[in-house]
Amino acid sequence: MRIELAARGIAALAAFLVVAGCTTDPAMHTAATRVADDRFVGSQTCGACHQDHFKGWQDTYHSKMVRPLREGLLKDALDFWAKDAKGNAGPSKANITGTPAKLDDVVYVVGSKWKQRYLVKNPQTGNHQFLDKQWNRATRLWEPYGQKNDWETQCSTCHATAYRVESVGADNAILRASMTEKNIGCESCHGPGLRHANTRSKADIFNPRNASKADADKVCGYCHIRGENEFWRTAQGNVSEHLPHPVAGQTYRAGRDDWTTWYTAKYLLPGVHADDPVNRNYPKTDLNNAFYVDEAAQKSGTFEALKHHQQYQEHLQTKHAKAGLLACIDCHSSHGAPRKEVADAAGCTSCHGPAMDARKMMPGLAQTAGGLMMRSHAFNPNPRPPRGTTADQLPPPVYAYPN
Q1: How many CA atoms lie within 13 A of 193 on its CB side?
Q2: Mind listing the pLDDT tens digit for each residue in 352-371?
């Protein structure tokens, strides 16, 4: 009996040390500990060993997607909270409940690179709801924002790591969800890290750079898409726009799960699902006027995005993707340096020669806020004129409460 209790104590201590970010001898980990290889341990645990990558990730916007008010509030949004320079009133009420809301009611801010949105509690559900205005970094003006669904049940798979549906209501409405950490952490791209933390073996963690270009792209594509989900609904009973695991209690595991095969009959995803071609429009859905499908697009066979976060659907149309020549990570890095988060034009000229103008080939076409556009990733040989400012043309954000 004493031997059995001692063995249990050692196993429990080893598991605690791993979760706490401490390294231990892999030989100490019992078979029972290794069975739980699908557990997520959090970016802080990864950073205990991968210090350079962790520090680089902390400098990226992936690590800053969702933050408490006093960590992420933009200074100019605070300066103009009541009214902007053109007299537009700032946020004043919650979108779902319609109740008045003040700055002090804000729990989390979402975004800072392009725009910023604000979350307050929804007492009806215990989740969070958006306020009625968003801050546009390009124009420095308040814009109406009408999202009337709980954040945890509409957007969170792409704003968090290890998102799980925990409680389901009528018609597959998500009532409660959990996540290992807010923001796009290490395990969003590398999959659950407990086994790797136990063994410290490269074979026990997914590395997109060791995968095929197509499989590496799917990791980025999980979030950089636009679709309409009729399988999972929001807490308010509306069709959702994100992509939770089809089984409640389970989560997407990068490198192990092929999300492109999930409930395809219930998920409208142009350019990814064979039954949803990118060369036509989808009225009465969130995909209405999401891509250029005009005569010029039909003739060229390139269907550039008109709405934001559709880069994967653009990329799949390119020769780069079709021939397996380039993956997203060949131009972008979630670790920060050396590529940071923005493609280096020199990477294009190394193959295409000095005449290649990457910025001209990637005009700002996909609207993410008023006058603020995302660069096209369709690489149209005859690109359209840009529609507005892109984030790389903006100065770095300044926060109201600097660390």
Answers
A1: 27
A2: 888 888 888 999 999 999 99
User: In terms of domains, do 244 and 378 share one?
Assistant: yes
Distance CA 337, CA 321 (A): 24
Q: Who contacts 294 (Cβ-Cβ below 8 Å, separation ≥6)?
A: none
Is the CB of residue 272 less than 8 Å from the CB of residue 221? yes
Q: Are residues 73 and 172 located together in one domain of the fold?
A: no
- Measured from the Cβ of residue 223, the count of other Cβ atoms closer than 10 Å reads 18
Is there a contact between 308 and 294 (Cβ–Cβ < 8 Å)?
no
- Whether 146 and 165 map to the same domain: the answer is no
- The answer as to whether 7 is a domain residue is no
Length of the chain: 403
Token representation of residue 70: 């006093």
Name the percent of the chain lying above pLDDT 90. Answer: 82
Q: Does 279 share its domain with 138?
A: no
- Same domain for 122 and 174? no
Per the structure, the count of domains in the chain is 2
User: Residue 146 is part of which domain span?
Assistant: 66-157
| Residue matched to tokens 């080939």 | 361
- Please report whether residue 203 resides in a domain: no
Angle CA(213)–CA(216)–CA(220) in degrees, nearest 5? 125
Amino acid at 156: S
pLDDT at 22: 41
**pTM, whole model, 2 decimals?**
0.88
Average pLDDT, 10 consecutive residues per value, the chain (403 residues): 40 41 38 58 96 94 96 98 98 98 98 97 98 97 98 96 97 97 96 95 96 97 97 97 96 97 97 96 96 96 96 97 94 74 62 85 96 96 94 94 82
Amino acid identity for residue 229 in this structure = N
81, 137: one domain: yes
